[in-house]
Specification:
It contains four helices and 19 strands. The protein is mainly β and 264 residues long. The protein is globular and about 50 Å long. 10% of the residues lie in helices and 33% in strands. Strands 1-2-3-16-15-17-13-14 form an eight-stranded antiparallel sheet. The chain has a five-stranded antiparallel sheet with strand order 9-8-12-10-11. Strands 4-19-5-18 form a four-stranded antiparallel sheet, with helices on one face. The chain has one domain.
Length: 264
């Protein structure tokens, strides 16, 4: 993808505010509305959402439906694009028949969806998670043996923040860490508080590089404790579904994605 930007002089005002909006009422086929804490940094179009847990990590070889439809069918109150993927295009081209492949190692419970461990400058991290305890760890590529103690192991990266320090060298060595793109990231405080981070791309803002995103998260004052943040797939894959806060959703009715983090 080639990005072109046109210089525009815009005066940005940094505004961080916790959302006090009431969620939309539940319908007959929904559970009670989920109360998320939604914080925005308006100058960079960043949305930070605290989540009670990760209910599911999905990998669908042939989803065939946009994120919003998959999320509604599975009863998610929140769904977001997850890790990197590749795909095989059918001939003749039919978007509903594309076969997706996970880029990098992925194990969900006892199912291994991809066992290769490409040692490349982008997929530098292993995000590990236990569904029952809601505990997570951020490991490196050479710590796969330690990762086997967790229910979920997904290779992604680069890591933006490790133990409260922005990983500038790791970001600069990655494939697209210094470009201005839409971003999706997963943050953890003390290994048991989790947040979804989304940086949107708009007509007035072309996106953000990962060093700037990391610095903004550190200075936001939101995170009290040992902060770790890892980059998920971003760019054109960036999308967010919020059932009870539809005005905060982003591209969820359009994106067909194989890797999804879901919260019920």
């Amino acid at each position: 993808m080639i990005l072109r930007s046109i210089p525009i002089l815009v005066l940005y005002v940094l505004l961080s505010c916790t959302s006090s909006r009431a969620p939309a009422p539940a319908t007959d086929n929904q559970t009670e509305p989920q109360a998320f804490t939604i914080t925005t940094i308006d100058s960079l179009h960043i949305t930070i959402i605290s989540i009670p847990e990760i209910s599911e990590f999905l990998f669908l070889n042939n989803p065939g439906k946009p994120l919003a439809e998959v999320a509604a069918e599975r009863g998610y109150s929140l769904a977001v694009n997850a890790s990197y993927f590749d795909y095989e295009r059918p001939l003749p081209l039919d978007p509903k028949k594309i076969q997706f492949l996970h880029a990098g190692y992925l194990r969900i419970q006892d199912s291994v969806y991809a066992d290769r461990m490409p040692e490349e400058r982008q997929l530098t991290s292993l995000f590990c998670y236990n569904f029952d305890s809601d505990e997570s760890a951020f490991l490196t590529q050479d710590q796969l043996a330690e990762a086997q103690a967790f229910d979920l192991v997904v290779q992604t990266g680069p890591q933006l923040i490790r133990h409260g320090i922005v990983q500038e060298e790791e970001i600069m060595n990655s494939l697209n860490g210094m470009g201005q793109h839409a971003r999706t990231a997963l943050a953890s405080v003390n290994g048991n508080e989790h947040y979804i981070v989304l940086a949107r791309k708009t007509m007035l803002h072309p996106g953000v590089d990962l060093i700037t995103l990391g610095q903004e998260l550190l200075t936001s004052g939101l995170f009290k404790g040992d902060l770790n943040v890892v980059n998920l797939d971003g760019g054109s894959s960036t999308s967010l579904y919020l059932r009870d806060y539809p005005e905060s959703s982003f591209e969820s009715g359009r994106q067909i994605l194989p890797a999804i983090i879901g919260v019920k």
